[in-house]
């Protein structure tokens, strides 16, 4: 068999009970007395890629999973719970997150299972561990010759079946790495990537390039009976190839590489061999007959380019070492993973974003398992793209899937139903936190909406659209905003990107309904403290600089429309109307805040699309009219957050993009810088005032989340700040949340889920 992975013997699965850890308390004062942040390890999300197991008889309980945001995680209980293990992996990259650990691919050495290899995204680095993944050493000599190595993404690693010295590394070269001027190049939608394959013959001390071509390289399989025979798959569903020609309607791609001389020369298997789709994102070799191969071939834009009747993607099968291929699936779905079960190769699995497939005849025919709404995954979660699979060695009904959108899923009934097994592993980024009690909160972001009743020890997915929403194609797998009714915590209001509007629930997320009157995407939703049935929403256009300002995905710029401004609901989020004030009508509103006692007083920050002008507006008549206030605030800096002291509403704080914190003592009429102690050019995404001490200046606590440097605390009314990051692994803060009683502080970390801290 090819040694892309190893298979475990799983005799017993034990669920590890107990909390993530104990809350730690400490008093205020010096940093030595500071409380410590706890990583909850959830909710699930990120950018998962490879799942591997250690097949040593003594370590079959140890599994490894990679994530392009959170690095490598290890499980010691057969993949049920996880902990990060990235010591020595120095690479830090990632759009919107300077401290993302971009580990993409991994493999376990079949000869010495203490040796594990990983490769990184967008940095061209390979790391080797000789202690089962606990520590890492960089191994890039030979690869580092390329001055554009930072555009390399390693997507696969394979160890030779007869020696640990020989390893193959498959990579993508982003378009900026091959265009003469370093510019990015897109096809219909995706980056037009090249591919490269490296080989080492001395255990990673030196690497040499052995292939370069028009499409990224992903999986490598080596015939164990004749290691000179090597197969390498090229392409992926979310990339296009350098040879793509949009004007001529040519998809491009390469197909599968085959070598019969140990990688010295290569033959290309493509349309002439029966592969109608040349984007082969997954490849698997039959564990008993290396001439039988399964491939998942598909590309988001091109597989269906000429219509469903000419759909090219699917699962392909070869019985003659890749010389001829037959498509064995008929559904027009984008397949992204295939797998044979080693204990019984008649059982095979394949996966798309919509369903999981199972074969009982080695991949000739397939049975489909999916939910009626066109999704698959554990209850309340849309699992998305299955990027890698792992069958149980002894039980073919037990299969494990790592999800391209983050999260691990386990089926014990042959793919029919799934459970999340991601505790401790997360690369998620949540954009909104709604805290309804000391330990209860709702969060929404890139991987959906989640609820925790125990401060993050457990996370419950809540993606349950009602029949009408499901019929319209709503998946609820990405949300921009979440807010809770201040008196009825089971009433939650949220904004999913796939309907461009607002949804609400009356049963804590058991089912969701679409709100009326708003067909635009809010970036923020807030409730009114003294008028609990009233909510306001900031509807924000997100082109160019504004999208980057908020650190949001590029595709969110699609939601730009003339419906910007402030919207209001007076029936707990069920129906909405635009606030009539002409000053905010059509404006780009970045954040809003409510007066803690007067429900008619609203603050809204606006910003021009090119950051030419920003303004703070105040209404004292529930949005009928607005006045520009905020003298002293910079005109060309976006306001990311606003906080009002509940005990003294004259005191306000504004968190700015790149300029720290400004403070007002006259209800927002004037502001002055209040950033002493903050990092240079701090991007303050969130400011929270501890309500417990809001009326006591001697014990005041104000918290500021920085998109680069973690969290700061001020204990003197904002005059000075100091870092509050003890216990934080990642420090890219999207937003903060604080419990109503001031006892718990929560932080959403871009690429590392939710952190918590007990306050005193």
Mean pLDDT: 90
What is the CATH superfamily classification of the largest domain? YVTN repeat-like/Quinoprotein amine dehydrogenase
Low-pLDDT regions: 1-29, 543-550, 555-560
Structural class: mainly beta
> Helix count?
2
Give a quick account of the main beta sheet: strands, pairing sense, barrel closure: 5 strands, mixed
Q: Name the beta content range.
A: 35-45%
| Proportion of residues in helical segments | under 10%
Classified by CATH, the class of the largest domain is: Mainly Beta
What do we call the CATH topology of the largest domain? Methylamine Dehydrogenase, Chain H
How many domains is the backbone divided into? 2
CATH-level-2 architecture of the largest domain: 7 Propeller
The geometry reads as globular
* Count of beta strands: 57
Distance between the termini: 58 Å
- Please state the CA-atom Rg, rounded to the nearest Å: 26 Å
């Amino acid at each position: 068999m090819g040694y892309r992975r190893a298979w475990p013997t799983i005799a017993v699965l034990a669920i590890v009970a107990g909390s993530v850890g104990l809350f730690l308390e400490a008093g205020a004062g010096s940093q030595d007395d500071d409380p410590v942040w706890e990583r909850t390890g959830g909710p699930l999300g990120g950018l998962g890629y490879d799942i591997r197991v250690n097949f040593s008889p003594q370590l079959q309980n140890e599994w490894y999973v990679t994530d392009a945001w959170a690095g490598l995680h290890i499980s010691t209980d057969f993949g049920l719970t996880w902990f990060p293990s990235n010591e020595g992996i120095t690479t830090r990259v990632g759009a919107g997150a300077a401290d993302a650990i971009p580990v993409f691919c991994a493999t376990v050495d079949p000869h010495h299972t203490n040796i594990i290899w990983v490769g990184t995204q967008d940095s061209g680095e390979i790391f080797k561990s000789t202690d089962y993944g606990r520590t890492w050493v960089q191994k890039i000599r030979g690869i580092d010759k390329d001055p554009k190595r930072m555009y390399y993404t390693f997507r696969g690693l394979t160890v030779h079946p007869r020696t640990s010295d020989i390893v193959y590394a498959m990579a993508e070269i982003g378009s900026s790495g091959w265009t003469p001027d370093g510019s990015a190049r897109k096809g219909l939608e995706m980056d037009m990537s090249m591919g490269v394959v490296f080989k080492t013959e001395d255990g990673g001390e030196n690497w040499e390039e052995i292939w370069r071509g028009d499409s990224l390289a992903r999986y490598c399989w080596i015939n164990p009976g004749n290691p000179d025979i090597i197969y390498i798959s090229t392409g992926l569903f979310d990339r296009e190839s350098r040879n793509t020609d949009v004007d001529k309607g040519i998809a491009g791609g390469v197909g599968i590489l085959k070598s019969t001389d140990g990688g010295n020369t290569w033959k290309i298997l493509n349309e002439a061999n029966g592969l109608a789709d040349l984007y082969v994102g997954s490849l698997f070799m039959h564990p008993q007959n290396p001439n039988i191969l399964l491939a998942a071939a598909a590309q988001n834009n091109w597989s269906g380019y000429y219509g469903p009747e000419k759909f090219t993607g699917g699962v392909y099968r070869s019985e003659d070492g890749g010389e001829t291929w037959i498509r064995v699936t008929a559904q027009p779905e984008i397949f992204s993973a295939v797998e044979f079960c080693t204990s019984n190769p008649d059982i095979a699995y394949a996966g798309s974003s919509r369903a999981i497939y199972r074969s009982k005849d080695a991949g000739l025919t397939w049975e489909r398992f999916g939910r009626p709404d066109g999704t698959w995954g554990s209850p309340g979660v849309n699992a998305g793209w299955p990027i890698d699979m792992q069958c149980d060695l002894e039980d073919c009904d037990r299969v494990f899937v790592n999800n391209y959108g983050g999260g691990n899923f386990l089926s014990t009934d042959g793919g029919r139903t799934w459970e999340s097994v991601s505790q401790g592993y997360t690369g998620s980024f949540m954009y909104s936190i709604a805290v309804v009690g000391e330990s209860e909160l709702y969060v929404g972001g890139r991987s959906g909406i989640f609820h925790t009743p125990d401060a993050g020890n457990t996370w419950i997915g809540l993606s349950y659209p009602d029949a009408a929403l499901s019929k319209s194609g709503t998946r609820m797998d990405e949300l921009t905003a979440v807010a809770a009714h201040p008196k009825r915590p089971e009433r939650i209001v949220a904004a999913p990107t796939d309907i461009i509007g607002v949804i609400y629930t009356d049963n804590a997320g058991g089912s969701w309904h679409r709100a009326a009157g708003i067909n635009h995407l809010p970036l923020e939703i807030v409730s009114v403290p003294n008028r609990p049935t009233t909510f306001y929403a900031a509807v924000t256009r997100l082109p160019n600089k504004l999208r980057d300002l908020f650190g949001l995905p590029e595709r969110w710029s699609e939601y730009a429309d003339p419906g910007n401004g402030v919207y209001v609901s007076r029936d707990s989020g069920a129906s909405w109307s635009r606030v009539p004030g002409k000053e905010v009508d059509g404006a780009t509103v970045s954040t809003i805040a409510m007066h803690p006692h007067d429900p008619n007083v609203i603050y809204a920050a606006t910003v021009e699309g090119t950051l030419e002008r920003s303004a703070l507006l105040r209404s004292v008549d529930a949005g009928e009219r607005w006045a520009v206030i905020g003298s002293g605030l910079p005109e060309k800096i976006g306001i990311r957050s606003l906080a009002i002291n509940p005990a003294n509403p004259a005191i306000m704080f504004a968190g700015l993009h790149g300029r720290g914190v400004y403070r007002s003592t006259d209800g927002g009429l004037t502001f002055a810088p209040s950033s002493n102690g903050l990092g240079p050019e701090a991007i303050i995404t969130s400011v929270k005032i501890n309500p417990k001490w809001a009326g006591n200046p001697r014990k005041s606590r104000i918290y500021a989340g920085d998109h680069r440097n973690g969290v700061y605390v001020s204990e003197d009314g904002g005059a000075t700040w100091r870092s509050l990051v003890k216990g934080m692994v990642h420090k890219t803060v999207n937003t903060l949340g604080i419990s109503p009683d001031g006892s718990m502080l929560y932080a959403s970390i871009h690429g590392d889920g939710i952190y918590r801290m007990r306050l005193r």
